[in-house]
Amino acid sequence: MARTAIERGTEWLARGGLRPTRQRVALAALLVGDGNDRHVTAEGLFALATRANDRVSLATVYNTLRAFCEAGLMQEVVVDGARSYFDTRMDDHPHFFWEDTADLFDAPAEQLQIARLPDLPPGAELSRVDVVIRLRRA
């Protein structure tokens, strides 16, 4: 029996220890309901929710995405100071970003080689390394 988008979303929320409120379930179903990974902006997810007739405010979308990140279900990819994407794929991997269309998608992780990182300041530990490869049309 195939799982529905709502079932997948509810199971995803449970993995993060989040209470399945109506808004969280609706947004989770849009994010992981088909089993595929997503890169979304808050505005893009709000538009998807609106088209699906899910009644959520843009503020709720922002707050819910932050809660998903804090629960370890998503990670935020900051492209510039004014634009963040939220990624449902949680392993370390690089991204391609098309500057003309503002599309973000996964780059092949197995092709990325980082030979050396700079020494960390005293008292610091590495949290993660984000790699966003910016593209423009030739």
CATH third-tier fold name: Arc Repressor Mutant, subunit A
CATH homology superfamily name:
Winged helix-like DNA-binding domain superfamily/Winged helix DNA-binding domain
What general outline do the C-alpha atoms trace? globular
| End-to-end C-alpha gap | 47 Å
> What strand order characterises the main sheet?
1-3-2
Mean pLDDT across all amino acids: 94
The CATH class turns out to be Mainly Alpha
CATH-scheme architecture? Orthogonal Bundle
What structural category characterises the helix and strand content?
A: alpha+beta
Number of H/I helices: 4
SSE series: HHEHHEEEEE
Overall tally of structural domains: 1
**Strand-residue fraction?**
15-25%
Family: Belongs to the Fur family.
Subunit structure: Homodimer.
InterPro entries: FUR (IPR002481), WH-like_DNA-bd_sf (IPR036388), WH_DNA-bd_sf (IPR036390)
Keywords: Cytoplasm, DNA-binding, Iron, Metal-binding, Repressor, Transcription, Transcription regulation, Zinc
